Amino acid sequence: MAGLELKAVRKDFGPVSVIKGVDLSIADGELVVFVGPSGCGKSTLLRMIAGLETVSDGAIRIEGADVTHMPASDRGLAMVFQSYALYPHMSVYANMAFALENMGVAKPEIAKRVQRAAAMLRLTDYLDRKPGALSGGQRQRVAIGRAIVRDPKIFLFDEPLSNLDAELRVATRKELAALHAEIGGTMIYVTHDQVEAMTLADRIVVLNGGRIEQVGAPLDLYNRPDNLFVAGFIGSPRMNLLPATMDASGALLLAGRALAGAPRGLAPAGERLTLGVRPEHVEACAEAEADLVAQVDLVERLGGETFVYGAAPGDLALTIRLDGQTAVARRESLPVRFSRSHLHVFDQTGQARRPDIPARS
Amino acid sequence: MTGILRLLTARRGAGRLHWTDWATYAYLGLAVLLMFGPVLWLVLSSFKTPAALLEFPPSFLPMTQKEVRVEGYPQPLPLFSVTMEDGSTRELAQVRRVGLIAQMVDPKAPGTTVRVAADKRQPVREMAFAVSNYTEPLAKYDFLRFLENSLFVTLIATAITLVINSMAAYALSIYEFKGKTLAMLAVIGTLMIPITIVLVPVYLVVTEMGLVNSLWAVILPGAATPTGVFLLRQYMLTIPRDLIEAARMDKASEWRIYARIVMPLSAPALAVLTIFSIMWRWNDFLWPLAVLTKSEVQTLQIGLNAFQGELQTQWHYLLAMTVVTLTPVAIVFAFLQRFIATGIANTGMK
C-alpha cells in the first residue's frame, strides 16, 4: 500500500516557479514532515496534495489512483489549517460533524464518532460551545478532531502549532505524537520549526526554493546532511561552518594547519571546501592538542549545558556546547578540539563529501 | 426601565449639572424635536376632522367643538361658553345664528331660548380622535387590499433579491474566473443608470411578457440590485478563505458551502440588505404607478396618491393612511436596528 506518490510535481504562478519538480513517495502510516525556511514552497506543496492548488505539471497519486486533477472534496484527505479555520457560527459538535454530514453518514454513527474523537482530545465538555468561546489550545484540538472523525486517507497539517504559545506548543506536539501512535494513519505535517520536525517525524523532507534538499529519518539528516543547506538548517544552535581546503597530500587544512585524523583525500588539492562541525562535537581541551583557540564573545549558561560563542583567528565564528556548567568567561581564550568522527565536509557546490560518497571528478 | 432612565439622566461627573450637560441636552432635545416633531404632528393630525385640519391657528392635539343633544331638537347642537350680561358664564347650545345675534338654549332647561350677542360666546372644545379617518378608507377604498399587495410585493421581492444577490455575490467573491472583474464592473456600472431612463424599455418588456397589472411586474424587474450584489460581495470578501477551503476539504458541495458557511457568516450584510430592500420596495412609487393601473393590484403608495386629486385633496384620509403606510417600516426598523448599526459599520454602506 503506497500512501502518496508525487511524480515531478511542478507549480508555476505565471512566470514564477514555486515548486520546481518534486518526486516523493510516502508510505502508508508514515508521519512525514515538510520543513524549510519561509517561502520554500512547503505549504504550497501541501495545498497541492490537498487539491486546493492546481498542479502545473507532474502527477499526484493517492493509494495508486491518480488524483492530480481531482477536486479537493473527492480526494478523501483531511487538513488542519494554521488558522484552524473552524466555522465560527457552529458549535464544536457541528464543526466536527460537518464533514460526516456531507458524506451522508447516519446521525447515530456521527454522534458516536464525534464523541469518540472528543473523548480522545478531551473536548467532551465543550461540544456545545462555539469556537469563539474556546482557548487557542482547545480550538487547535477541535481542528484536529474535525480531521480525525473523518478517518481520512491522509492527514494534512499546515503549521498547526504556530499560533500557540511556546508552552502549549510543546504540550500539543507531544499530544500529536501520541495521537499518531494511537490512530496510525498517514500524516503530512508542514512546519518551519525544526524541533517539531525532529520530534514528530518518521521522515523529514527538507525543502528549499521549491526543491527537495534531502529526505530521511530525523537523525539521518542530523548525522549525515547531504548538503550545506540541510547541515545549516537542521540542528540548533547551527552547525559551525568553517572554510577549509585540501593540500597536495590529501590532508584537510583548517586555518592553514592540517587536521590530523580528519578524513583524507575527499577533494582535489586546492579545492575550497567547507568544514562542518556541530557545537556539541567541539570540545574544550589542553592548548597543546587544540585545533583552534577561540576568543570567547558570549557565554549562555542554561544550567545543564553551556553555549559558548567565540571567534578563532582568521574570523572563524565558533559555537561550542559544553556539558554542565563551566567557569569560562567572556574575553578568555578557549582551546578547542573537533571530534574527528563527526566532521562534515562540503564542496564548493555545497554537496557533502564523505569517504563513502566518492568525489566527482 | 432603570437603564433607560439612567441613560436619559446621564450627566458629566456626579455633582451638579455642568454647562456641557445643559448644552448636550439642549442639542439632543433639538434633534429629537427635529426628527420626531413632524412624525408626531403627522400622527396627531391624522386623527383630526377635516374641519380641524383647516383650522387657523392650528392646534397640536386633535380638538373639536363639543356638541350636545337637546330635547326637542333633532340635530346635536354645538356647545358654547357664554358670558352673560351680568358677568356670569353659562354653557349654552346654539340653536341658530342670525347676523350678530345667536339664539341659544340651555341643555338643562330646553324649554326657553336665550338671545346672545355672537361675540360673547366661545366654543367649548374637547379632545376627539376622528378614528373614521382610518376606518373609512380601509372599508370604502379597499385599503386593506393595497396593504396586502404592498406586503406581498415587499416580502416576495425581498426574498428573491436576497437569494439572487447572495448567489451573484458568492460567485463574484469566492470563485476565480476569467472576466470576474469585468462582470463586477458591469454590475456596478448599472448603478449609474437612473430608473427614469430605463422606465420605457422595461415597460415594453413587461408588456410583451403580459405582466402589466400583475404584482410580478413590480417584483421581477428589480430583483437583482447592483447595490445588493456589491454590498454582499464586499462582505463575503472578508470571510477567511481558509473557511471555504476547510469546507471543501470537508467534502461540502458548493451549494452546502453557500448555504451552511457563507450565508450564515454574511448575516450582518444580509440584514442590512433586507432592511434596504424592504424600504425600497415599500416606498417604491414611480414603477408601480406605471405598471399597476387597476385598483385591485395597486400598492399602498399608489393608493395614497388617489387621495390627492386635481381639485381637492382629502387630507384627513391621506394623513391617516400615511400613518398606516409608515407603521410597518417603523416596526421593521425597530426590530432590525441593532443589525443596521453593526451591518453598516462592517459593510461601509450608508
TrEMBL record, chain A:
Which cellular compartments is it found in? Cell inner membrane
Pfam families, per the entry: ABC_tran, OB_MalK
Which keywords appear in this protein's UniProt record, sorted alphabetically? ATP-binding, Cell inner membrane, Cell membrane, Membrane, Nucleotide-binding, Transport
Q: PROSITE patterns this protein is in? A: ABC_TRANSPORTER_1, ABC_TRANSPORTER_2
Residue ranges of every copy of the ABC transporter domain listed in the record: 4-234
User: How is this protein annotated for GO cellular component?
Assistant: ATP-binding cassette (ABC) transporter complex, substrate-binding subunit-containing; maltose transport complex
Q: Which domain of life is it from?
A: Bacteria
Keyword Cell inner membrane in annotation: yes
Claim: Transmembrane is one of the keywords in the record: no
Annotated GO molecular function terms are: ABC-type maltose transporter activity; ATP binding; ATP hydrolysis activity
Question: What membrane topology is given?
Answer: Peripheral membrane protein
| PANTHER family in the cross-refs | MALTODEXTRIN IMPORT ATP-BINDING PROTEIN MSMX, MALTOSE_MALTODEXTRIN IMPORT ATP-BINDING PROTEIN MALK
Provide the family line: Belongs to the ABC transporter superfamily.
Write the protein's name.
Sugar ABC transporter ATP-binding protein
From TrEMBL, chain B:
User: What keywords would UniProt list here?
Assistant: Cell inner membrane, Cell membrane, Membrane, Transmembrane, Transmembrane helix, Transport
One Pfam family, short name please? BPD_transp_1
Q: What does this protein do?
A: Part of the ABC transporter complex UgpBAEC involved in sn-glycerol-3-phosphate (G3P) import. Probably responsible for the translocation of the substrate across the membrane.
- Describe the location of the ABC transmembrane type-1 domain by residue ranges: 147-336
Task: Give the record's family classification.
Answer: Belongs to the binding-protein-dependent transport system permease family.
InterPro entries attached to this UniProt entry: MetI-like (IPR000515), MetI-like_sf (IPR035906)
Localization terms from the record: Cell inner membrane; Cell membrane
Q: What SUPFAM superfamilies does the annotation carry? A: MetI-like (SSF161098)
An example of a Gene Ontology cellular component annotation for this protein is: plasma membrane
Coarsely, its chief localization is membrane
Q: How does it sit in the membrane?
A: Multi-pass membrane protein
Top-level taxonomic group: Bacteria
**Subunit organization:** The complex is composed of two ATP-binding proteins (UgpC), two transmembrane proteins (UgpA and UgpE) and a solute-binding protein (UgpB).
Name the chain's protein: sn-glycerol-3-phosphate transport system permease protein UgpE
Residues that span the membrane, as ranges: 21-44, 151-175, 182-203, 215-236, 257-280, 315-336
**Coding gene?**
ugpE
Return one Gene Ontology term, BP aspect.
transmembrane transport
